[in-house]
Amino acid sequence: MNLQTEKVNNMKLIIDRREGESFVCEDENGKRVVIPCVQAENAEAGDIVEYADGSYKVLAAETDERRRRMNKLLDSLWE
Q1: Average pLDDT of 2-29?
Q2: How many whole angstroms from its chain centre is CA 38?
Q3: Strand positions, DSSP E, the chain
């Protein structure tokens, strides 16, 4: 697994899963990134987070839109 730990302002990540005290994420280029859970408070698997000012903030609107698109895609498979 390719892991990246460099923090870049405005870097957006999708949280894939939690492993212990870390979140395993994917960046916009498909690279795996591991971040400490304490830097992404209130985050959970599936959330889109952005790094800024020393922590990761959940981007609620983008996360909701992504979940809607994913649910629509899954629903279309059953039609």
Answers
A1: 84
A2: 14
A3: 3-4, 12-19, 22-27, 32-36, 48-52, 55-58
